[in-house]
Fold each of these.
Amino acid sequence: MESLRFASHISTPVADSPATRRFSRRLGPNRAGLRISAQAAEPDLSVTVNGLKMPNPFVIGSGPPGTNYTVMKRAFSEGWGAVIAKTVSLDASKVVNVTPRYARLRAGANGSPKGQIIGWQNIELISDRPLETMLKEFKQLKEEYPDRILIASIMEEYNKAAWEELIDRVEQTGIQDAFEINFSCPHGMPERRMGAAVGQDCALLEEVCGWINAKATVPVWAKMTPNITDITQPARVSLEAGCEGVAAINTIMSVIGINLDTLRPEPCVEGYSTPGGYSAKAVHPIALAKVMSIAQMMKKEFAGKDLSLSAIGGVEKGNDAAEFILLGANTVQVCTGVMMHGYGLVKTLCSELQEFMKKHNFSSIEDFRGASLDYFTTHMDLVARQQEAIRERKATKKGLQSDRDWTGDGFVKESESMVSN
Ligand SMILES: Cc1cc2nc3c(=O)[nH]c(=O)nc-3n(C[C@H](O)[C@H](O)[C@H](O)COP(=O)(O)O)c2cc1C
């Protein structure tokens, strides 16, 4: 397998450049003296997901980084593989945001202001910009970047006609490549039976996915909430109801902290707060677990179908993305990471992911997608495996444990068992 992958990197010997030497060194001495060209050694990051071609798997996650024309244009010009715009609904006048609406958690003693930001809570709602304006901007963007992927994130109330109208209006612009359905916003919207209120109720979800898939003519990804006991249940329902993909996770319901001077919760709006959505580095391990469960379920129950998995949660490094892909993700979304590091982050993510791929001689994303998934099992199975391994190690233990173990019949064999040559 490895040699097959390796074959696609092989080229005829080329001049000795530092990059070539570095790469040859990594491959070790037993590669039949073949050298690797620095150019051919660059692993291919491009992916095709539900028929959508992207230069790399990095996608702007729905939120502030995809909230208007200016910032989405910036995302494309910096090289993001795709952009998922901020969630839109039919009537933006019902969406009223407050400020401040973010609060951060820092590492270090008592959340020292110099500590690294590890957690981010928001109480931001979906887009408060008129649908008409957003659609005009989508259109303009697609005219300027026709070969780039722009995904509309949509959300509506529990009302078939409203969903149909929203899908119709977005599709009529003729510009969107896919829909991501926000079944997962944990705050504000559930009060209107939107977002997580649908994603947490499999009966509602099945019905709403049915409406959406009967109407939409482009791929549909269902975005999952982690605020549920078993995330595979809504993921399964969405796929069975015809969605082409699942995206996970949206933010985790949280209370980020209480200000110990004022005794008021954060983020504090006129002295009060409300639980919000947690994101950034701290959620990455939780997102890995959720993505792993969904990927296992998809592999077992939907094998062979052209379905996709978009992983989200705490990505700031190429290695964070590598972990998601090793679990089976086709694409990797980033939201808070862009808010902290800017749009140029995609360049670092791409080069770090390529470094990881070079280290393992992977030439494409498919070379390692899902490669770690089969190494998750139950605790009971871990115990059985460990007992078996101990038994095997004992059985192969060389020599006698004690002089009292010498026997007359097996004396020659027992002697040989302790000879070194
Ligand atoms: C300020 C903020 C606003 C967000 N708004 C949306 C939204 O409108 N629609 C949506 O589907 N997800 C929204 N999200 C969730 C993100 O897309 C993402 O699922 C989550 O933050 C985890 O990824 P991250 O750690 O990369 O931010 C928002 C997240 C943040 C931080």
Note: Residues 1-41 form one domain.
Amino acid sequence: MRPRKMPPVDVPAGSKFCFKCNLVLPLLAFATDAKQYDGKKFDCRRCDSAAAYARKVRKRDRERVHLPEALAMDRPWSAHVA
Ligand SMILES: [Zn+2]
């Protein structure tokens, strides 16, 4: 198992720090993952789906779509509800 990363900020109870978007988010923003120490995914749902989307796009269109474009399209979560 990977060593736990410690969030750089105080995380209140009922919240979790997403290391991908560097935001403290409510636990509801994290999908369940029984493999994780706290039962929640490492990345928040939006980062997770953005990553899944980028993977999908890369797989489907490896030649034409580059990661920066895929990420730019996947930025609407910057207005996270904390
Ligand atoms: Zn995130």
Note: The beta strands are 15-18, 23-26.
